[in-house]
Amino acid sequence: MIVVDSSVWINYFNGVSNQHTDLLDHHLSHTPVIIGDLILMEVLQGFTSNKDFETAKDLLGALWFRRMGGYEVAVQSAANYRILRKSGVTVRKTIDVIIGTFCIMEGLPLLYDDRDFDPMVSHLSLNIPSPL
What domains are there in the chain, each with its CATH number? Predict the structure, then answer.
């Protein structure tokens, strides 16, 4: 199983071809892909066309779905944010700390294309999928 961040999904839906979208394409046919509620919201809010919104909602709705929040994740996310800040790292988006913390707690690799997750890999042991 793998979690894919909105940074990759957005590029994927926009037709961007890079190592991350290629890896997503591979995983979609070989690995169960998880979509989290926070990621689903981030991806869907960007569509301007109702048709594209509905198409993406149907595609993403066919994936494994998980709620990423809750008390334990909130408390651990705050602790992780503090660890990063004490290490000199300020993550720009709180939602990314929540997504990263969820993946760490669940032992799930996160496929992303957003520099906010890099310190979580080096300081918090966030797992990333192996390249193709």
Answer: 2-124 (3.40.50.1010)
